[in-house]
Amino acid sequence: MPTGKKIALITGANKGIGLETARELGKAGWTVLLGARNSDLGRAAESKLRAEKADAHFVPLDVTEPQTISAAAAKIKAQFGWLDALVNNAGIVDQQDGRASVASVAAIERVMRTNFFGVVTVTQAMLPLLRKSKAARIINVSSGLGSIARNANPPWDLQWSLLGYCSSKAAMSMFTVQLALELKQDRIAVNAVNPGYTATDINQNRGHQTVQEGSAEIVRLSLLEDGPTGGFFETAGPIPW
Ligand SMILES: NC(=O)c1ccc[n+]([C@@H]2O[C@H](COP(=O)([O-])OP(=O)(O)OC[C@H]3O[C@@H](n4cnc5c(N)ncnc54)[C@H](OP(=O)(O)O)[C@@H]3O)[C@@H](O)[C@H]2O)c1
């Protein structure tokens, strides 16, 4: 079993909440593996964090391209040996997504491919590396928009009831609870996090939170050695599925 330095893989780590999560884990002394689908952007993020003294390494990874996922797992195994944390952060919205009565089915498929199938494929590929950790954690970056309880009585304007995006995060919830139960005896914690409305490119920087605020709960759960499993959290505490 490895000791000492902790290692995290963060998908979609070249910008936004993923980059900030990597920055905070790097500051905490972790080795951070920056998954990014665009090499130039991945290398730029690596340089940025290294300039801040983080032990950061770009890993080519498109969550919709299975061969890049298996190549990433092989590279991590060869260069680093194991993973202590996997942060499934990469995510998209789609302009053709919309309310249940009109959302484009093709757009729903595109969103599911990245936000749900991508998460399942990456997690399954990284599980052998996570099993080598003494106490691994998987953090699925979800959204309050993925809460079925909140969708049943939405505290937001109906323009946010995006069928594809909300369904992709709700499906992520099912993955979270099923995997958490399955991996409990293996000491692998699996949780979902709502970052809250955060200023990033996904919302044209309209979010009211900073990326530090948006990544805070993800970072907290990543750093927890003996934390909860099978939960859905935001900075204020647990939220309803
Ligand atoms: N910001 C918010 O208010 C908010 C609220 C709730 C939940 N979230 C969730 O937080 C996560 C991060 O979003 P963000 O706000 O930081 O948005 P962002 O700044 O747009 O970042 C999204 C990241 O995901 C990457 N990505 C997209 N498709 C990918 C793929 N196929 N393979 C690998 N990487 C991919 C992007 O890479 P490129 O640069 O190459 O596009 C980018 O690095 C998402 O899962 C989002 O749903 C955000």
List the topology elements.
Blueprint lengths: L6 E4 L5 H12 L3 E6 L2 H13 L3 E6 L5 H14 L5 E4 L16 H26 L5 E6 L6 H5 L10 H21 L4 E6 L17 H13 L8 E3 L2 E2 L3
Parallel strand pairs: 1-2, 1-4, 2-3, 4-5, 5-6, 6-7
Antiparallel strand pairs: 7-8
The protein binds NADP nicotinamide-adenine-dinucleotide phosphate.
NADP nicotinamide-adenine-dinucleotide phosphate binds next to helix 1 and helix 4.
Provide key terms for this protein.
single chain, 241 residues, alpha/beta, Rossmann fold, binds NADP nicotinamide-adenine-dinucleotide phosphate
Could you explain how this protein is built, in words?
The chain has a single domain (7-238), classed as NAD(P)-binding Rossmann-like Domain (Rossmann fold, 3-Layer(aba) Sandwich). The radius of gyration is 17 Å and the shape is globular. α4 runs parallel beside α6. The longest helix has 26 residues, at 105-130. α7 (211-223) links the parallel β6 (188-193) and β7. It has an 8-stranded mixed β-sheet, with helices on both faces. The mean pLDDT is 97. 43% of the residues lie in helices and 15% in strands. The protein has helices spanning 16-27, 39-51, 66-79, 105-130, 148-152, 163-183, 211-223, and strands at 7-10, 31-36, 55-60, 85-88, 136-141, 188-193, 232-234, 237-238. The chain is α/β, with parallel strands linked by helices and 241 residues long. It has 7 helices and 8 strands; from the N terminus they run βαβαβαβαβααβαββ. NADP nicotinamide-adenine-dinucleotide phosphate binds at residues 11-12, 14-18, 37-38, 41, 61-64, 89-92, 114, 118, 141, 143, 195, 197-198, 200-203, 207, 214.
